[in-house]
Amino acid sequence: MTPAAGIVTFAVLLVTAGRLDAALEEIRAEPNLEKRSALAMDNAVSALKEARAAYTAGDLQKVAAKIMELEESVDLSYASLEKTGRDPRRSPRWFKRAEIESRDLLRSIETLEHDMSIEDRGILENTKKRVETVHDSLLRGLMEGKRK
């Protein structure tokens, strides 16, 4: 890679990160925590779609940026639900929605992983584990509920 190409790549990453922060900042500005959770999960789904399109186009840097956005969105969704302080068993609506979407997201991540070459699959490893952890926590909360 030439120095000029490195500078252009760095500039692209900065612009992408700026858009990433802007999208997540808009979601963080939502005062209703349940709606914030839903918006964050929707953002995660669209980030995965954009990552798939970028992989098809051969842009691994954009794939990595979108995967990072996906992970941050899932974390924001889960954190927002946790901040509500509600018992998932007594008020399951938003928790169940997040659980279902995280399960579907996990399946889509696995599909993308299978479509990727073996060398590129490492990009998804940590994100896949994080989404599994969030999904399991949501499911556990729905099944067990809060301790008395």
What are the key terms here?
148 residues, globular, mainly alpha, 5 helices
Write the element-wise H/E pattern from the N-terminal end onward: HHHHH
Helix content range: over 70%
Shape: globular
> Are there runs of 5+ residues with pLDDT below 50, and where?
1-18
- Integer average pLDDT: 87
Largest sheet: none
Give a count of the beta strands, DSSP E runs of length 2 or more: 0
Strand content: under 5%
Please tell me the total number of domains: 1
Our count of helices gives 5
Descriptive overview:
The protein is an all-alpha fold and 148 residues long. The protein has one domain. It has 5 helices and no strands. It has helices spanning 3-28, 33-57, 60-84, 93-115, 122-144. Helix 1 runs parallel beside helix 3 and helix 2 runs parallel beside helix 4 (93-115). The N and C termini lie far apart (59 Å). Residues 1-18 have low confidence and may be disordered.
Quick gist of this model?
With 148 residues, the protein is an all-alpha fold.
Helix-strand layout with pairing:
Layout: H1 3-28, H2 33-57, H3 60-84, H4 93-115, H5 122-144
Helix pairs in contact: 1-2, 1-3, 2-3, 2-4, 3-4, 3-5, 4-5
